[in-house]
Amino acid sequence: MHCESPITRRVSRKIWVGSVPVGGDAPIAVQSMTNTDTNDVAATVAQVRRLQDAGADIVRISVPDMDAAEAFGRIKQQVSVPLVADIHFDYQIALRVAELGVDCLRINPGNIGREDRVRGGGRGGARQRHSDSYRGECRFAGKGFAEEIWRAD
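Given the sequence above, the corresponding structure tokens read:
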């Protein structure tokens, strides 16, 4: 039985997370997140597959350090569902998973968006737009970081 929804979707631009459209006129996509140690590749792959079997369209995986980034690359090779890398603290981890073929990056602006978190190796800073709630802490994004991410696209 079909009934009209009282919920009005916000108008947004459609993007693709791997093969899954998100936003715009795309249907709602189901995303879940693993809770395994990312460095345990076998356990994480098994959990990603269980999530996909349960109906997840997209799976997010925490990537807290470079070892986990390398493990993420091995996980990505073994699954077919689009993967989102959840990045905290170090933009260089985001650059590495981009090289390894991540479908989407989730950057935590509360702990990576500060200028001192993204200025490194002589890279300059560029203003980034954020909602008012993040504006105080997240004023800058590394210019080199943004350039590298666009290059990965």
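Strands lie at 15-17, 20-22, 31-33, 58-63, 83-87, 104-107, 125-127, 140-142. Try to locate this feature in the token string yourself.
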